[in-house]
Structures are given as structure tokens and as C-alpha cells.
UniProtKB/TrEMBL annotation:
Recorded coiled-coil stretches: 331-365
Lineage, top ranks: Bacteria, Bacillati, Bacillota, Bacilli, Bacillales
InterPro entries for this protein: FapA (IPR005646), FapA_b_solenoid (IPR046865), FapA_N (IPR046866)
Protein known as: DUF342 domain-containing protein
Organism, as annotated: Fictibacillus norfolkensis
Chain ranges of the Flagellar Assembly Protein A N-terminal region domain: 26-176
Length: 446
């Protein structure tokens, strides 16, 4: 069988593929039982797909290789610890394009009274181990713990794992702490009467923010109306009920998430996520996490969108071929780690060749068994180290697999960059996923 087939292992040895060599196979030589025995002789014993082996044996000439002959299970890493609000402060978006969105009613402002529990810590989970096709257990990583700290006007009780309010006000969540800020409220539009706003807590505006005004807040900023060519800087999140009409001049920067009905000719920078309900039109949007536009029309057209983890939309580009640029960042440190592990594998493989040669020489010289056993143990340890490095490489690669997801249409003339790789879309795709595969940007239709 070795002269006709070879086995390729993928996904941390949880998937075994049978590939056919370019050698003619005599009739009747490959039977189900012989093929199964050969596969088992390679140490593969878990998740063997009997039905696939039968198809290969019965339809050898017409079968299209590679064949997936065994399946293991990748480990599922544990979830990291996090703070869970003791109340729900957001309502779910209606994704039906035909339903008119009243964005002012989509969000309720979270408030707390003195002594109230505002959040509880959810502990990290252990994760679920995986198993390779060789029957080896693949350990899962435990989720990261979270060191909860006292925030503004909040106290964390370690024994109860609860965050208590030490003052009344609006609640803001920021990573490992919860803050409660006083509220600066403007009933109506920002105007010459209010002037620019610079406040140490949350800012809530029930009207619009016209062009030329500036808002700076230590907490969250909530605007029920429209933001024109104004500047907003927030250490927390920004929620804009109407939308952004930036005219190419206004800028919004926030330390948390940005949420809006639409963005038109705006500039938005968020350390968290950018979530837009309807459209992102001729704008510059940059999120350290993800950009999402999948409610209602869910269209990204013109301008530039940059994200660290991924971009999702119903439609990207348009029929008039407006220049639309999408860019996914990649983590340089992780890429260096991958190279480091690949170099270690090469070193270990070279050393293995020498050890195997030495073992053969010692056996030929009738060297005492104890010495040979030491060499055999070293060879076994080297194989384990190589397997561990390959697992780390797969883990890093999985963490680098940011993607662009399109539920509807990906139009031509959209330019996509993922790290240092670029691709210009030449034709339309429907329901597609764009990602890096073997140092190339690929478009996979779903």
C-alpha cells in the first residue's frame, strides 16, 4: 500500500487524508480489508470512516482523492472569565430589511442605585479536550482568569464575586471593572446655549449634534438624534440613535464599542467593535475588534473599513463600482511565534535523522540494550516535542484566521487586504467568506 498511497495529517492530527500516488495500481490489489489493515498499521485507530474506505476500494479508478479516512476532534478551549451585567441593557436588533428601525428604542440606559449589585463575575471554564486520529488526547487550554478591580463608584466583593454600586448613576463596563458615572443630560440639540461639552461622566443628548461642536466624556456618550460633522471623544462606548452625517470632517473616537443606525462620510475609530444597523457609506471605519453591518440593508459601500478580528455585512460594494477598501490586520507577534515553532521542528527533525541512524549503527554493533533503549526514549521524546510544536502552530494559525463574511453580495472592484496580502475582487460572489489560505486571499462561497 505504501507504493500507491500516502496519508496526510491536518488540523493537529485530527484529520487524516488518503492521497493517491501517481503510480498505476494493479487490479484487485486494493481491497477494503487490506486498506483498513494498512491504515491501522500506521497507528490510526480513532474515527476511521469505514464508509469512505469502502467507496475507495469499490471505486478506485473513479474516486476523486484526497479521501478523508479518519476524523478526530479538536480541543475546545475554555471561556475566559468575564463580568456579566445583572441586568440586560440592550434589545436585539430586528434584521428584517423591510422593518423600519426606531433606533431610539433599541437601547435602554443602564442605571444603578446605591448598594445595588450591578455585575457578577463568571469564572473561566476548563475547556473540552480533543482527540487525534491516533487516539491521543489533545489537551484544551483553560480560559483566562479576570482580575476584577474596583471602578468609579463601584466595589468588588471577592467572596461573593459581585460588583456593588457605591453611588447612583449610569453604568459603564470597561474590561475588568465597572464604572458608575453621573450623567450630563442635554434635552434637545447641542447648540450655542450648551457649547462644547467636556464631562467626567456619561453624556446623554436627546437631540442632534450639529457640525462644529465637540463632545468629550470620561464615560459613555449617547445621542438619540443625528451627529453631523462634529467631534466626539469617549473613554467608554458611543451609541448614536439617528446616525452619522460626517461630511468627511467629523470624527468619533471611543475606548469601547461604537453603535449607530448608519454612517455616511464619517470617520469612526473604536477600540472595541463597530456595529452599524443599516449602511456604512463612503466612510473611514477602524475597529480593533470587528466591524459588523448585518441588520436591515447591512451594506458597506465606498470608503475604508479596517478591523482586527473580522468584517461582516449583508452586502459589500455596489453596482456602480464605488471604490471600497477592506483591511484585516494580522498579529505580527503571532506570525513570529509560528516561524519560531517551525524552526524548532526543523531542528528536531534533523536531530531525529541522526538519532535513527545512530540506533541502526548500535544495533548492528550488538551494543547493550540499555544504551539502545536510551536512544529509543530520546527519539520518542523528540516525536512528542515535534507534535507539541505542531499543535502550537495550529493554535496560532487558528487565532490568525480573521475573515470577511458576506451574507448577500460581494460586488466587483472591492479591494481586500489581509496583512501583507492583497486582492481585488473581479466578479460578484453571493454568500461568501474571504480569508487567508496558504498565503493567498481566497473567496469561498457558502
Amino acid at each position: 500500500m505504501d507504493q500507491w498511497f500516502h496519508i496526510k495529517l491536518e488540523n493537529s492530527e485530527t484529520e487524516a487524508l488518503l492521497l493517491k500516488k501517481g503510480v498505476e495500481i494493479p487490479s484487485g490489489e486494493v481491497t477494503f480489508s487490506r486498506l483498513l489493515a494498512w491504515i491501522e498499521s500506521k497507528g490510526i485507530r480513532h474515527g476511521i470512516r469505514i464508509e469512505v474506505l469502502s467507496l475507495v476500494a469499490e471505486n478506485l479508478e473513479s474516486f476523486i482523492f484526497p479521501a478523508e479516512i479518519a476524523n478526530g476532534k479538536l480541543p475546545k478551549d475554555g471561556e475566559s472569565a468575564r463580568l456579566i451585567p445583572s441586568f440586560s441593557n440592550e434589545k436585539k436588533l430586528d434584521t428584517n430589511e423591510n422593518v423600519k428601525l426606531d433606533f431610539k428604542r433599541l437601547f435602554t440606559i443602564p442605571t444603578a442605585e446605591f448598594g445595588e449589585i450591578v455585575a457578577r463575575k463568571q469564572n473561566a471554564t476548563e475547556g473540552i479536550p480533543g482527540i487525534s486520529v491516533f487516539g491521543k488526547v489533545i489537551p484544551a487550554k483553560k480560559g483566562k482568569d479576570l482580575a476584577v478591580k474596583n471602578g468609579e463608584n463601584t466595589v468588588y466583593n471577592e467572596s461573593e464575586q459581585c460588583v456593588y454600586a457605591s453611588a447612583s448613576g449610569e453604568v459603564t463596563f470597561q474590561n475588568n471593572r465597572v464604572n458608575i458615572y453621573p450623567v450630563y443630560r442635554v434635552d434637545g440639540d447641542v447648540s450655542l446655549k450648551t457649547g462644547h461639552i467636556d464631562f467626567v461622566g456619561n453624556v446623554h443628548i436627546t437631540g442632534d449634534v450639529p457640525s462644529g461642536f465637540k463632545i468629550s466624556a470620561k464615560g459613555d456618550v449617547r445621542v438619540e438624534g443625528v451627529v453631523e460633522a462634529a467631534d466626539i471623544i469617549s473613554d467608554g462606548s458611543v451609541i448614536i440613535g439617528g446616525g452619522v452625517l460626517g461630511q468627511g470632517k467629523g470624527t468619533v473616537r471611543c475606548g469601547g464599542d461604537f453603535t449607530s443606525l448608519y454612517i455616511s462620510q464619517g470617520n469612526v475609530y473604536a477600540k472595541g467593535n463597530i456595529r452599524v444597523a443599516q449602511t456604512i457609506l463612503h466612510s473611514h471605519c477602524e475597529a480593533e475588534s470587528s466591524v459588523t453591518c448585518t441588520s436591515g440593508k447591512g451594506n458597506i459601500s465606498g470608503g475604508t473599513c479596517i478591523a482586527g478580528n473580522g468584517i461582516s455585512a449583508n452586502n459589500i460594494g455596489n453596482e456602480t463600482n464605488s471604490k471600497t477598501l477592506l483591511y484585516l490586520k494580522t498579529n505580527d507577534r503571532m506570525e513570529k511565534e509560528i516561524i519560531h515553532h517551525e524552526q524548532k521542528i526543523l531542528e528536531l527533525e534533523k536531530n531525529l535523522e541522526k538519532l535513527n541512524h545512530l540506533k541502526i549503527v548500535l544495533i548492528q554493533k550488538n551494543t547493550e540494550q540499555q544504551t539502545i533503549n536510551r536512544i529509543v526514549n530520546t527519539i520518542s521524546q523528540s516525536h512528542q516535542e515535534i507534535s507539541a510544536h505542531r499543535t502550537e502552530i495550529e493554535n496560532y494559525k487558528n487565532s490568525l484566521q480573521s475573515s470577511i463574511n458576506i451574507n448577500g453580495t460581494l460586488h466587483p472592484h472591492v479591494e481586500i487586504s489581509i496583512g501583507k496580502y492583497k486582492r481585488k475582487i473581479q466578479s460578484s460572489y453571493t454568500a461568501a467568506k474571504v480569508f487567508i489560505e496558504e498565503k493567498e486571499i481566497v473567496v469561498h462561497t457558502l
